[in-house]
Amino acid sequence: MRAALLIQRWYRQYVARLEMRRRCTWNIFQSIEYAGEQDQIKLYNFFGYLMDHFTPASSERNLISHIFRENNICRNVDWERYFCYKSIEVPKLYSGPHLSFPITCSNAAELVEAFKNKQQLHSRYVLQLLGETWRLLRILPNISQISTCHSKEITICGDLHGHLEDLLLVFYKNGLPSSEKPYVFNGDFVDRGKDSLEILLILFSFLLVYPNDVHLNRGNHEDHIVNLRYGFTKEVLGKYRLHGKKILKLLQKIFSWLPLATVIDNKVLVLHGGISDTTDLHLISRRKRQNRSGMTDSDLEDDDPTAKPVDSSRRRVHSLTHSSSTGTRHEVQRRSLQGLNNRVTCSVEEELKERRRQAGLSQSYGDLRNSLANSDSDPDSGELLESYGDEWKQIVDMLWSDPMPQDGCVPNEVRGGGCYWGPDVTEEVLRRHNLTLLIRSHECKQEGYEFCHNRRVLTIFSASNYYEVGSNRGAYIRMGPDLVPHFIQYQANRATRALTLRQSVGRTERSALRALREKLFAHKSDLISSFQEYDPENTGLISLGHWACAMEAVLRLGLPWRVLRTQLVGDTLDGMLDYHLWFRELSITEPNTEVSLLETMYKHHSNLETIFRIIDTDNSGLISFEEFRQTWKLLSSHLQTEISDEAISDLAVSIDFNKDGSIDINEFMEAFRLVGGDLLQNEGDPH
């Protein structure tokens, strides 16, 4: 008996230690992910600053202005010509799936099977499928209403993020979408994973077959600016080199018309991010959506003879990044929000301001209100624009917000967009709309789902192995007429199922620590400076407490550094850390007194790649030496650091591998990653 008790005690301690390691690993992954989202929004703010403050003729502003400019091709009858698939022939040697339109359930099932077998859909069918999807989305409401019945359950899936294997596993376990098996997919279909486009094509095909039984909510990643950073743009251009640009343009239109939420039986609200203390579903439902040219659907009907009739009560909300064109500030203020029937050619500056305001990236809500209040406008325009600002803020909150355990509603400074809302806000919003439950996604959960706010808020996440193989389970919900959620969890990777708990934790922990060491390398100059503040006599030694304080002050990841010390710090001398030796043990070369070009590149590689892809306007994957130089000038302006032209030129010449005077973006970024990997390859196994 004593031996059994000892074994039991030992085992409990062992499991507790593993759980603590797993939670630390999770915190590392999540903190790094959210820091990346903050960087993305800061970069977008910087672009906005350039557009606001640089002269119209400046090269810096010209480089990025096109991402905010209205795509004049993509409207009405011209839309048919630009995206026309009829001139694209399918060769006889093509062995992939064939689609017929109107698409059938057998077509959709064949598409699932083809993607399962790694086949690719021909670009003619891709454009035709996306075009039909856009036409359907135009007539859907902002908030979908669905109901259960005694004979069927509704299945709700969370973030998929390009993980096709997860979607295929859900279909295998639960069955394909049909009139008897309705689905709600809750946003973030794309980015991060390698099969985002395949997921979209599958979901859109079932949406076309079962428009009343398949519901797609928009997520914060259904946005082309976000796609530039997180991989979807690169994926599409890599798979469809000839027609990839058209496919991306059409997807931009589709994303801007996706519904924002779904309500089940008038009791359960399903949306991607969350709510705030100002959330008004009635306002969002009534909001007229406009296409990117600034016209309502009635205008489209007049101009496009092929357009389907649209119920005037079912108008759509603006895209966050692609809203209607606007004129000058005074023209904007004199327009009614109920109908923008005049086509106005806008300047890039004003359109940028409008889009940044709607995306929630350029200024705070308070700044927006102040700017509106201080502007010279018609007497009635202030009230209209304030209403417009309220709607914009609510849409951003629906896509970006996260719950918090404390009462209240505060800006979400961790992500940089949306808000944190507490249990009191949940109770009030649900009471006001006569709802019982809020289902949302947007956050990866270790078990695939998690309740909070007295079980009134439920997070569902369907991408298993999101951070690393074994890092988390995926899950989906089945809900019947009783509106009680039932969870099905899974692991899409077979190798994960064979791992023991210790092996799984060890594998994900090593991956997390590797990512954290990369952050240390990227910030080594700042870390050295911070350590030296605690070492005024230049002894090279600091206390572990000071080490932890300096780490958080520089990296701002909110991690338990004292707990992580055992994984990051080796031997110490009487509790004092030799930080120069510590950097050498981490295989991080001590920096020079000046910030090196390599360190700057490593620290901001995601921003650098985003700028590259923005500058590459023809999506060729190549940029000239001059564009490369201007990219670095943009980045150095954003970082407020000095990088000499000579250093930039030397770097450009060194990475022009075939000496043709241009730089391949993908090769450059891959070479950069290899450099970082070589510097960190000797990190070793902490266990």
TrEMBL record:
Molecular functions (GO terms): calcium ion binding; Hsp90 protein binding; iron ion binding; manganese ion binding; protein serine/threonine phosphatase activity
EC code: 3.1.3.16
The keyword Hydrolase is assigned to this record: yes
Needed co-factor(s): Mg(2+); Mn(2+)
A GO BP annotation: negative regulation of MAPK cascade
Biased composition (Polar residues): 360-376
Domain of life, per lineage: Eukaryota
Record key words, sorted: Calcium, Hydrolase, Magnesium, Manganese, Metal-binding, Protein phosphatase, Repeat
EF-hand domain: residues covered: 603-638, 643-678
Region listing for Disordered, in residue ranges: 286-336, 355-384
KW Metal-binding (keyword) present: yes
Catalytic activity field: O-phospho-L-seryl-[protein] + H2O = L-seryl-[protein] + phosphate; O-phospho-L-threonyl-[protein] + H2O = L-threonyl-[protein] + phosphate
Family: Belongs to the PPP phosphatase family.
Name of the protein this chain belongs to: Serine/threonine-protein phosphatase with EF-hands
Provenance organism: Oncorhynchus mykiss (Rainbow trout)
Source lineage: Eukaryota, Metazoa, Chordata, Craniata, Vertebrata
